[in-house]
Amino acid sequence: MHILTKVHHKNVGRLIGYCYKTCLINVERNAEHASSVATERVLCFEYTQSGSLDKHIADEPACRLDWSTLYKIIKGTCEGLNHLLSAHQKPILHLDLTPANIFLVKGKTPKIIGFGLWRLIDSTKMHQTKIFKETHGYMPPEYVDTGFISNKFDVFSLGAIIIKLMAGNMGYSRCFEMSPKDFIQHVSDNCTKRLHAMPGYSPYEIDILRVSTCVEIALRCVDEDREKRPCIEDIVHKLGELEARVKTIMLLPHDHRQSLLTDLDPGLYSPKESRLYMSHKLAQDGAVTGYKSNWSRIDSQSGATSTAHGQSKDLSLQTGSIPQYMSLQHLRDITNNFSDERIIGRGGFYVVYKGVQQNAKMVAVKKLVHPTVSTQVEFEKEVKLLMKLKHPNIVQQVGYCYETQNLYMVHEGKCIFAEYTHTLLCLELLKNGSLDKYISAACSGLDWHGRCKIIEGVSYGLEYLHEQSKEPILHLDLKPANILLDVNMLPKITDFGLSRLFDQSRTIQTANTSGTLGYMAPEYLRGIITPMSDIFSLGVIILEVITGHRDYPYDIRSSSKEFIEHELQNWRNRLQKEPGSRSLETDCQQIKKCIQIGLICVNPERTKRPTMKKIIDMLEGLESTDWYINNQLSSHEIQEEL
């Protein structure tokens, strides 16, 4: 009773009340009458209708609980045991953790009961004792052999319960006959068959990930060497990490007010005359992909109401597509097991594969190779950043994979589990590839109109990163190879591995600079990071797109004024030869403006470079570029500074 008054957890049996009554009674002993104290002890527990868990241990897969229920039971039992072993000044050992001592509430929520053998234990010590009641199959070998008790006692029992739930009593025996790798595969295959057989069930990849994780945990729990068993905190943490990967759904920020009003018929629901009340009910479990809205119009004078049932709203249209978790096996399938024939690009620490999904839609699968701590951090940073970004000129994330496998191997003569994390990113596939293929002036099909759209698109994308995001984001590796083109030759910025969230109130100085020479600002080479680092890179890209040559501003051989005139003449000659060309002078004015913007952006003095807002204003004609004349630099000055 005393122990139960200290325990309060949703997965531990709740003591509702108790009775402890003593009274004097007359007894007869050896023909003599005497008074004796009689004690009545009664405990009152919450009632569970579904009975104990031992009813659900079955060798036949068809007789077992469905996997979703099993997983909730396993997870709940782990959390309850964690509360006992970790949540008090001294760990509370159950010492009789069996399916018969786990009751189910409404068939799904497990509650640990049966504390008759419990102990408070000093976690730094081992105890040697003998328990009179033994439940064979759930006792760890060190207790059976020598009577030793430690906080790994209940962990062994937990592992046995998990295996029996997932594989039955016969499966529990087989786990000691098979290698861990084979047993995990055996259980996973059986569960996969059951999941496939379920009508209307689609996201089985998530459950397969849960299955393999639970079996791996259970096998470690029943290790004969108690030192190799995981502690209960690590088990709960592992399951928590798994749930975080499964449940993470990023809904991008979106102001619904404007779209909600403009979606209405103005004749019936004018915002000037009506008050609108909207109620949303979103799913609690799983990915939210859309919602329905019901509208009520209230007449302020009569109080009459009318309701209009809205159409289903697709969240992917309003907030950007929702990145979904993709299993490693799924990504292997769509890339033909990461075949060399599917490689469409490479980076410093990653390879990009073309993936073909079942609906024939193609995606780009970016796989981290030869991971180190630093490359893993960069890759994870890119995944998190892309989840937050929604803009027509930023490449969109379709899905991601972050899957940790426990590899069973021999190391220095010992069998160990080694963790290996597979990190992959699934992005929209842009068929025209990267901008660096189209820089050359000789590239056919990319006229001034197309080049202008690219300059504007990249500028809009960079403005979004710098100005419109909640926290400014610096790309720090902006170059033609990191700008992809869709079927309409619209640019999308990609590769955020080096990006940083930036505090506008300060300048960052670092000893670690990474990037691409020729596109890195002079101050960035010295370890100084500001938004102007990206502005410099943008300027180089603008000049390369206009001139059709690389390595600007290094190749400028004359003053800025002469350089502008030279490039204008080149374009004038080219435009005159193009059939159906638009107004020559209009195009030349636009070309001149873009060259001026590019030259201002590559100013060696970062304080003289424009902000992205100013660049957009100049591109849209909201601000004149005349002030550029006052900041004009000759190529000689640029060359000296660089």
UniProtKB/TrEMBL annotation:
SMART domains: S_TKc. One of its GO terms (molecular function) is ATP binding. PROSITE patterns: PROTEIN_KINASE_DOM, PROTEIN_KINASE_ST, PROTEIN_KINASE_TYR. Residues 1-240, 338-628 form the Protein kinase domain. It comes from the Eukaryota. Gene3D superfamilies: Phosphorylase Kinase, domain 1 (3.30.200.20), Transferase(Phosphotransferase) domain 1 (1.10.510.10). Pfam families: Pkinase. This is Protein kinase domain-containing protein. It comes from Aegilops tauschii subsp. strangulata.
